[in-house]
Specification:
The complex is a heterotrimer of chains A (364), B (643) and C (652). Chain A has 364 residues and is mostly helical. Chain A folds into two domains: 140 residues, no CATH class; 164 residues, no CATH class. In chain A, α13 packs antiparallel against α14. Chain A is globular. Chain B is an alpha/beta fold and 643 residues long. In chain B, α7 links the parallel β8 and β9. The two termini of chain B are 27 Å apart. Chain C is elongated. Classes of the chains: A mainly alpha (364), B alpha/beta (643), C alpha+beta (652). Chains in contact: A-B, A-C, B-C. The interface between A and C is large, with 58 and 50 residues. β1 of chain A pairs antiparallel with β28 of chain C, so a sheet runs across the interface. Chain A: Belongs to the PIGU family. Chain A: One of its GO terms (cellular component) is GPI-anchor transamidase complex. Chain A: Keywords: Endoplasmic reticulum, GPI-anchor biosynthesis, Membrane, Transmembrane, Transmembrane helix.
Amino acid sequence: MEALTKVYRDQPKTVLFTAAAAIRILAALLFPALPDLLTLRAELSTPVNSFKRSETVQYRKVYSSMSEDSTHTMAAYSTSHACQAQATTAAFAVALAGHTSLHPVMLLPPIGLLCYDRVCVQSAEKGQTSETDGAIADSTKTNVAVDLRSQPQPLQFGLRFVATFICAEAFLFGFSRLILPSWRFIPSIYMTLLELPDLTPNAGLWWYFFIEMFDAFRSFFLGVFWLHMLSYSVPFCLRFQRQPLAAVVLMMGIIAVFEPYANAGDAGAWLSCLCLLGHLFELTSLHRYTFPAIATLLYSTLLGPAFHHLWIYAGSGNANFFYAITLVWSLALLILLTDTVYAALRDEWEAERPEGKGKEIRQM
Amino acid sequence: MALSARLLTLRHSPILLQLPPYLSALCILIGIAWLSILPLNEYSRQTYVSENAILPGQVHTYFGGSEHNVFRAYRQEVYQISQWSEEDRLAALGNVMQEIGLRVAAQPYRFTVAGEEVNGTNVYGLLQGPRADATEAMVLMAAWRNFEGKINYSGVALALTLARYFKRWSIWSKDIILLIPMDSTYGPEAWVSAYHSTTSEVTTTRNISSLPIKAGALQAAVALDYPVGPWGHRFDKLDILYDGINGALPNLDLLNTAVAVASGQMGIGCSIHGMLSHSDSYRDRLTTLAKGVVTQSAGQATGPHSAFVPYHVDAITLKTVGDGWHDEMSLGRTTESLFRSINNLLEHLHQSFFFYILLNANRFASIGNYLPAAMLLAGSFTVTALALWVQSGQVPVEPTAKIAGTGSEEQEPKLEVVKVGEDIALVPAATTKAAEREMLLPTAVVLAVHLAGFVPLYCLNSLHREYLPLALQAVTATSLILPAFTSTALTRQFKTSTQQIQIMQSFSLLLLGATLSTLATLNFSLAFVIGVLASPLSFIRPLPKATDLPFLRSANKQYLYNVDVAISFVSALLHAALSPPVVLCALCWYFGHDVEGVLVEMAKGWAAQGVYTSFVVWAVWWPAWVVGGIVMVSGAVGGAGRQ
Amino acid sequence: MKLSQLLTLPVALASAVLAIPEYSEHLHLRPLPNGYLYAGFNFTASTTLSAYESQHFRYFPRSLGQILQHSHTQELHLRFALGRWDDESWGSRPRDGRREGGTGVEIWAWLDSGGGRVAVEERWSNLVNSLSGLFCASLNFIDGTKTTRPVLSFEPEGTRGEGGGSMELLHGTLPHEVVCTENLTPFLKLLPCKGKAGVSSLLDGHKVFDANWQTMSIDVRPVCPVGGEECRLEIQQTVDIVLDVERSMRPRDDPIPRPRPIEELECDESKSYHAPDTCYPKRKEGEMAWSLSKIFGTPVRGSCHLADGDEGSDIGIEVLPDRLVNVLHGGSNDTLAPHKQNHDLRLFRLPDSARQHTDIMVSQQVIQQVPLQNQPPLYASRQITGFGQERGGMHAVIRNPHPDQQRIVYLESLPWFLRPYMHTLKVQSHPTNSHDKPTMDVKLEKMYYTPALDRLRGTHLELLLTVPAESTVELTYDFDKAILRYTEYPPDANRGFDVAPAVIRVLPNNTAGNGNGNAQGSYLRTTSLLLPLPTPDFSMPYNVIILTSTVIALGFGSIFNLLVRRFVLAEEVPPSPLALRVAQVAGAVGAIVQSLKGRLRGTEVGQSSGRKAAGGEGGMNGSGGGAKLNESGGKDDWAGGATSQDESRKHR
């Protein structure tokens, strides 16, 4: 027991990853049919991440097969690097994620912000250490005593970050062009994402909407939906300047709820990312409706497959059954998202007004 | 105190915390009462055919005259054949079909159920609709042995005669498949599953060979059940069997068509669930409803048609019952008219209801009217789960620290205890402080118990039939001691606190509620029955120590001890009476089946036809019951973390 | 002598004999087992290319000719088909299946490929549109999604002299099209005798479309005789039908197959239980009696000998030599002698007189010698497996009954909303009769696969493979069923969508039994399939748009509501004037009530009640309540006032 704890304390990452890998392999060994099973679930697999489709010979499919699987890792990867203030790597990771499936590009501003924040802190610490010889620079102290001159210019940093991103994107396109016969992969990937030609039922809000949409308004509403998704990125950055990590996580949540080919995987990834904001849990559960929301999620995870079965296989229920459940699912996720926003804001507010802790507050 | 604080504590206010037990009790009562009002005219509807293409009973039927002679001959032939060995019989049936002019094929199959092998062969013939393009087909089925195991002489003969008669018509827009399985469960199952699969992979339980001849998409299947030999017998009514595997139902239009044709066109009365005499009274309707709920919740096959329904092929069985003046020809004409109607279909049956409860051959309650019953039952668990969750969020502070709590407030919870009696609502003291929840242990326990549920599931479905009763006894014994044992272990070893117990119960009830409400959409009756049987679980609380009981403050030790024992004994008895195995045996006794037979049927359904009733019992209801037991006992043994 | 070879006779004539008659017609009759009759009509007309170019048509239908010229069509093959050929009992297909099509309408043509892809597609749409006008068929629905470009399956039939530019083959199908008399009438209009005289006078919609299997074909191809004289453009129209003799001999005024009168029933007396009321129907034996006039409702009216040099026969009957056939001619009973006869084929030539009727009568006869049944090259069937509307599998079974292997081309053209997974394509073979032998993979010699593009192009799959001798090849792959926009569904959405039959071409093989030397090989087609797709609720568009928008608006609203506003302690929020006013009013009312109470009861009660009231009202509005009480409540309830005061203070 002690040994284990010791090991864990020594290199937690290693242990964590080993455990995860072990579980994955164990699952694969125990249930050989598992991958097929998962690829066949409507809630899990969508046209752009379906592994089965990826095996077909068209490049669009081959190409975007990696997308969903890699996107999450890439997003997480870039976040972690942003936290270590490594702008280049972060930008590159975002580029990679965005290259395979468009919407992660919306993570660029928050991650850039995160990077910038960390860079400032680091430079501040440097400054600290240079001035006060070897005093431990904990963030609060640095925040107090930092001369702005030693900090990098936000504008030029932003430019550099964006430039890095663009270069990475360009490089990736060049690279894909190398492995693929022609440039046709560009429209075939991004049109699939933008125009939603494939309306296979999934856990998202788009499919049934665009099945029932009148042809005349289809393109208009596609535009509206995409703009709506885009409209969150910058406001989050502005509002959460002081806690960029929250901005990143919230943006991931927005993507998980509103993306065109939504699936349970994204939602799961986001829910696990919420742990990065663990300090907000108490606030949410204290002031908001977290437990009901999670209970709703539980219900819809059970009811979703049931209604999908009734519609598709038993033929006894119609499309509205499953559609209703996807609505509930998205609604529950939205409630969680809103609660997190509230908690993050309130956390910030309480930091500056400690007397407000646990009191009833209003918004003006 | 401040307004904000008041608002904050609103969600933890004692009123809200005392409400849930009554709320869930209310849910349960309403849920059960709900079914009893369905038979009223206000809550049920007259059936009607909503697919316009069907036109039931609009065609003139010509089956009769010399066909009767042919039928008698075929019945004699079938009777003769029945004396022969199986191979000869199959060959002979094949010959007759060939002479009629069908493309004949056979399909051998083997199932291994409860340690026994079941072998058989389906004989079937394809009547190609003269001008059909082979995209659609309908099935005319007559199992060699009907569901009760009697040889289906007249049914098979009639099917053959009809096939010969149909062959002469050029109106068929769909192919007609004449299927003669050797029995009423395995045969159709093997045939329909092979019809929808490319390759037949051999498993331990089933070995089905693929079909040499196939037609298009199956639109509907009608099975004839008329087990009368050459001596003949006139029947009174047609009993229409419609329950599919796992309570899936065929489209109501098919049923309506059959009823309309039989009673409207041919003047043959139709009955449901063998209710031969059905004076459309409330009582009879309720009985029919109850029978329907029972059969549906069992989820087992009720006839040769049952295997088709899960494949989205609407199917019914026409079973002749009673003594009357209708003869095989009127049944034949009914079938002819029914097939003409199905033949009219332009689309797969989709217009009418798939979820319904029949109260009479021509009266039904639709899903909107009956679903709330099951949902309320499931909701009752969820309510309790929420309440427990909230309670678990706060631990009571020491009574000495109660400043705000006035005398009257002090009394209230104690009165509660007396009122509710067996199950005691844990009413927290007026002031509590929020506490961090320790959820690891409860989660682990709940998970473990659910996993443990697979042990009885496996045993009762894979053992040889003669060991099944033994296995059941073993399961009963273990499940009776399991809660006490686990709970003792938990309280003694892990020092579980009241809060953990509450969280445990909350999780288990939440899971139960969610599962049942999901199940209600798939198989309403099963969800309802399980919900009723499990409903007491949401009132189980840790047993009180006699010392905690207010009115025993003054009593002496010995007396207290006796009270303790008495309480534990009574509650343990009640709890045991509600355990799944005990209830199972009780049901068997009530319906007069022998336990072994029922167990074999369940194993059969599970292995051969994928009936998930036993899964629901052992992996949903049983774990919830065990957790309930753990919670209850936890109070008695060492009184856990009760301050 | 093989049926197939016989039926290619006119073709052989046309291409071999030097002097091609400008028009010739032929009817081939052949009884099939189980009381069926095959009737194959063949009408061949031709014109010289020069006459064609100069739009000088004699027997060649002008309407069609102009369409072909306008759309630069080199060679045209058009098929209308209904029902199934039951090759289990009827044997090999007529004309080696080269003149039949899949259920519905099938068309393939070689067009001038000059001008590039766009021009070709333009011509193709011209062709199908004008043909749909000509034949009252919905051929105009053959658009890009229903058109494929097969590589191996078809080869030009025509012999083309030099000068012909490059050609491109396009192939389209309409499996859902229901062929009917409205297609037959224009078909007959193309004939020089317009179906009024000659064998074509037998073609009547009622009978043709009551057949168990019928296919109409039109084939236009250039033919260049070997003798170096100028090429001709030949049109060949065929109608092949299989009639149920018993059914088609029913009187037209009473077509209902009522049960026969008991005395007409032939019973099998050998059965032990035979009794007057119990009759086991006897198995039919021998050949049925039939006659043209009974089956087709009319005898052959006159003849249609137009072209000079047409010495061919009009009618051929393929029956056993010792079967009695008498051909009545004219109103009188003088019989017509066979024009030619070899061992089981008798050829008759109609007399040239225009208005005399000819009828053929065959009597009921029991013949021991069974007619030789020639096996088809292959048996093929195709099914959709799996259930549910999400995914399924294709399962084609091809059985080779012959003792030698055969190379085949398997062509499938699938609609775009059926999404095949080619990596799951499995082609396996196992010996037909012995199942114990393991299945082995069949090597695909060639595979042409054009993946579908959503709403633009269907899937085109073409496989070249070899079917081993006396073994069965199973071809399977998985596919997904796409869900469409609700405007893309037909009115009968829940019926499903038709998938065109697979075309199997058996490549000519010197060793193969069926091989008769020509380059075409023989064809067979599977039945078409029904593909059920998931359907949305068609009555929902507005509700869905509203509900989804509501959810999105909820999220958007609540999030931005949080983002744009700032937090303030509730205590700092100035109470809204309205709330104050309401509170005052409430306080006033409460106070009045109290004062009334106070008046009614004695002061004692008054005090306590006053106190309580004050405490109560403190909740709503301290000042108001307190003030009023001081006046009303009598002497010493200042305490109540006080309590209310400080409670109210708390609440500000």
